[in-house]
C-alpha cells in the first residue's frame, strides 16, 4: 500500500479519463494543467467519443492503453465511475474528480459504497471522489482543475474543501508559502486524513503537514498515527465545525460525523497537533513552521525603530509561554555604547526613528551572543529609514545565526521592496506584532509538549495493568445482571461496588433493604438517600435528607423517606466535610471513544465549566501532566504553604477510572458528582450514577 | 478655545519656524510637504539665518511677519522654543515638533512646564511638543514630516506615537482608509486626548474618531467627554500598556501614567469607547465603522460560493451577539427555485463553486426583503468565477439597500481586480471571515449599549441622594478619630458602623471589650474573632474560631482568644448559612479615581478572578445593567425556577457603596470579604476591612 501511494503522488504515466478540448469543462482544465505546466511524464487520454485529443491519440478505455498506468484521473459522470475503475486492470491509482457521491444524499452514498467495494476488491487507491485533484509542484504536476502551479516548497496541504484549496493557493502566492503537495481529499472515501498523515509523515520533502478538515472518521487511529508523525514534523490543522450552527453547515456540506469541539481539542492536544483557530491563523502558523526553527528557547527580544509598535508588541506577550528576555547589566552597557542616549536599552530595544541598517546590525550582533531564542525585528518606514538595507541585514543575520529572527515590517507601499528581499530569502514578514508573538508561542508550546513526551516512557501503563485486574469479570457480572433486569441505571449500591472493584475510593455507606433495621453504630451527622434507578433528581422528590444529627432525627427521616419510597433500599452515608468539590464523568464519543471529564464541581459547575477532558489510551504520566495543566491544577499546587489535594492520588484514580471505561464497554455514561477532596486531602466518591 | 482650535486644524496663514532647504532635515521635509502637496493658504518662513527660503522671503522672527498667523510650526532646538512662542504675539496656535521635553527626563520636564506656563499666560494652543505634526487632507495640508497626503475621508486619527502614525498612513493606503485628520499629539502637554475627542466630536467632517494612546491623563474628565461624543460618533481606541512589561516600555517611552488595564477596559466601556485589542483589529474596526452602517439588527446571512469558507465563517459566530439568521420556509422555497438542487438554502447559503454574478444577485434581491441586518458575501476565485462582476453586484446592491453587505473575498492575485472595484466604491474587503464577523459584532454590541443608554435617564441618581444623606458627617468623625489615633485600619466595630450608616447590611455582632462578660442571649452556632487593626490574617494568628456550638465551647474559645489577645475587643457573630459567597471592594486609581470591585468570593476568588469593576459616577440603572452582564450575573437570573439573589438589592448596596466611596475620600481601600447571599437571598457583609 505504501508503494502504491508513492505512485499516486509521484506518477510517471498518467491517463485522463474524460479529457476534453471544450473550454470551460473540468476535463479541459485538468488536461491543460497537466500538459502545459511542465510535467515530464507520459500522458494518455481516454474518451470513447474522440480519436484524438490535444493532437495525441485518444483511447476508448484505460485498458486499451496496454501499459501499466501509475495514475488515472476520472472526470466522467458519477454513474459510470465504478465500471471504469473496475475494468482498468492496468491501473492501481485513481483520482475521482467526479461529484455525485455521498455528498448528495442516499443515492450517492450507495454509489460511493459500491466504488469502495471495487477499490477493496481490486486493491487500488482512490483519491476522492468529489475532489479538486492533486498538485505536486516538484514534478510540475497539476492534476487538478485549479489553475497555475505554486512554488515548490516544503508545505503539504491537504484539504477537505476544494474551494478552500483554491483560495489558499491564491493567498499563498501573496504570502510566499511554497508547497510540496496540495491534495484535495474530497469525500475521503478511502484515502482519508489518516492515510495522508501517514504518507506525508514518511515523505522527506515535507517539512510541515497542513490540513483543512471538517470531520474525522476514526478518532483513535487518527490520534495514534498523528502522535507518531508529530514527533517528526509539525501537523497544523484547521478544523471547522466549532459551533452547533456550523455542524449544521457541515452536515449539508459533506455529511461527515462531527464530535463535540472540546473533544477535538483534547484529541489534537493528545496527538500534539497544532490547531489553527481560524483561516488567518492557519496561514500565520504555516509561515512560521515552514520557514523558521522550532522555538526551543522562549526568551524573545523586540528590536524596533518605533516606540509605539514596540509597546504594542510587548502587550502581546501577556499570558504567553514565550517571554520577553531580560538583559544583564553588561549587555545593556554594550547597547548603551552602540545606541544614541535617548534609546531604550531595555526590551523592547528602541533604536529610534532615525535608525540606520548599521544600527540594527550592531544590535543584532550583540544579541547573537545572548541566551535568547527569538528576535522580533520591528520596522516602520519613517522619513529616512533604509528599509531595503534593513531587510538585507535580517537576511544576512538569519544565514549565520541559529536564533529565529522574525521581521515585522509594518506598512504598505513603503515597505514593499523590503518585503521582496525578505521573501526571496524565505524569511516571510509578519504584518502585525501579534501574529509573530502568537505563532512563536504556539511553536514553543509544541516543543515543550514534545520535550516532556520524549522524556517520559511512551508506552501506556495501561496494557501492563490490564491483566492484573482480577475484578473485571466480577464487575461485568454486575452489569449483566442489571441489564437482565431491564434496568439502564445501576443502583447506588451496585455503582459503589463497581467503583470499589476498580480502586476508586467511595464514601462509607450502609445499604438498608426495605424494612431492614439499623444494626451498626452510626457516626453522626449523616445523610439519608433513597437508592432507586428511577429517582434521578433525589432532591426534587424528597428522596434525600441532609445533616441528620442524632438517632431521633434518623428514625424520623427514615420513616419519611420510606413513606415515599416503600420498595427501595435506603443508603446511609456520613456527611463529609470537604476542602473541594469535584466532578468526574465518562461519556462515549462516536469518533474518539471513551472521554473522561473531570473538573470543579459544586453550584458553579455548569456556569463556569471548569472541566478538562482525557481520551484513552492513557499513561499515568500523561494523566499527571494533564492534571497539572488543567483548570483544577491549582488545587494540587502549594499556595501559602498548603495544597488541597494530592496529585498522585487523583492520577491513580483517573487511571483506574480509565481502566474501567476501557474494560466495561457496556457502561455508556458515568457521573461521579460530587467527588470530594476531604479535610485530610483524600478523594472520595459521594454520589455515583452509572448508565448502561 | 473652540474657535482657536478651529484655526489650528483649518489654518489659512501658516508660518514655519526652522524651515530649511537642506535635504534630510525635518525642517525641510515639513516645508516641502506644505509647499508641494497643494495647500492653498499663505505660507511664511522664519529663520534668522536666511534672507530667502524656497524663493520666498524668510523672516527673522514670527512677529516680523506683521500679520495674524493662524498656525506656527516650530522645528528648532528645544531650548529656544519657549522664547519663540512667548515673543510671537501675532500667533494663537503652535505645533511644536521639537523633541527634548518631558520624554527625555527631569530637565526636559522643566522645559515643558515652562512652555505650558507660557501657553496659559498668552492663551495660545500648542500641539506637541515632540510630535510628528498634523495632516488635514481636505485642505491638502501636510504640516508634518511624514511624506505624502492620504486620501480625504471621514476618519480622524489621533496618535500618541508619531512612528505609528506614519505606519498607519502607509497601511491605510493599502486598505483604502481615508482620513479627515491625522494628528500626532506627542507629549500632549496641553492638547490631549480629551481636547481632541471634544474638538473632533464637533467636526461634522469626522465620522469616526480613531486613537492610539499610551496613557490617559485625567480619567474622570476623559470618560465624561467621551460619553457625550460617543453618542454621536464611534470612538475607536488602541490603548497600549496591557502588561506589566509594556508599562515599563511606556515609562521609558513617554513618561505617561498608566493605570491597571482592567480599569481602562471598565472606563472605555463606561464611555462607550470601542477598544481595539491590537493593531490588526484597529484597522478592521476603522474599516467597518467608517464605511458601513452601525449594526442595529444582529441577524446576519452568509452567502458563499465555497462550502469550506462558509463553514469557517459560521464557526466565528460562536459566543457572539450577532447571530446567523434563520430563514422561513417561504424564503427557503424562493432560494430553492433560484439555486441548483445541490445548493444549501440554509444559512450559510451555498451558491456552489460555479456561481455566477447573476446567482449572487438573485439571492441578494431576496435577502433585501428579509428581516436581517447584514450579509457577509464570501467569494473564492474558482475556475470560472466572474470575480469582477460579483464585485459589481455587491456595489450595486449596497447603493440601493439599507442592509450592510460585507465582502469577504478570499485570495490573492485572482481577486485583485475585484478588490479595486470594491475599493473605488468605498466597500472595503475583509480578508478573512473572522475579521468581518468580529467587527460586525463589535458594532452591534456598541449599538445595544447606546440603545440602553439613550433609554435610561442619563442623570446620575447620585447627586440627588447626596444631600439627603444625614450620616455622612458621623462617618467622617469615625474616620477622623481613627486617624487621630494614628491607626490606618478601622476596627471591625468601627467598620461595621460605617457600613450601616451607608445602608450596607452587616451581619449582627456583639462587640465585647477586654474582660467584658457576655450578657445577651446567644443563638448558636457562632464565630469568635479578635477585633484588631494589627491582626490582618486572623486565621494564621489564631484570632478566629468558627463553628462554636454551645455555651461551654464559647467560654473555652473566648478564653483561648483572650489568652493570645488580651487587650483587644472580641467580636461574636452568628455562623451564616449561605447560598453564595461574594466579595466587594474599593480601590483608588490615580487616573480614574474610585474603583468598585465586586464578584465571586470564596476559595477560588484569586484563582478564577470572577470580578467586575465599576467607576464613579454611577446611576442605579448603570449598576443594574453592569450586574446583569457581570460574571456573577447568573446568580440573579432564574435557573430551574430559582434565583440565588435579588438584583435590586445588590444594585442598592453597590449604589450606597459608591456613595460611601464618593463622600469619604479619606478611605483608601475597603474589602468586604465575604459578602454573603444567605439562604433567604439577603445580602450580608460578614467581614469588613477599611483602610485609610
What attributes characterize this protein structure?
alpha/beta, homodimer, 5 domains, Rossmann fold, 692 residues, 23 helices
Describe this structure in words.
2 copies of one chain form a homodimer. Chain A is an alpha/beta fold and 692 residues long. Chain A folds into 5 domains: 1-133, NAD(P)-binding Rossmann-like Domain (Rossmann fold, 3-Layer(aba) Sandwich); 150-291, Rossmann fold; 295-455, 3-Layer(aba) Sandwich (Rossmann fold), CATH 3.40.50; 456-503 and 578-692, ATP-grasp fold, B domain (D-amino Acid Aminotransferase, Chain A, domain 1, 2-Layer Sandwich), CATH 3.30.470.20; 508-575, ATP-grasp fold, A domain (Dna Ligase, domain 1, 2-Layer Sandwich), CATH 3.30.1490. Chain A has a 7-stranded mixed β-sheet with strand order 3-4-2-1-5-6-7. Chain A has a 7-stranded mixed β-sheet with strand order 9-8-11-10-12-13-14, sandwiched between helices. The longest helix of chain A has 23 residues, at 433-455. Chain A is 38% helix and 22% strand. At the A-B interface, helix 5, helix 8, helix 11 and helix 16 of A face helix 5, helix 8, helix 11 and helix 16 of B.
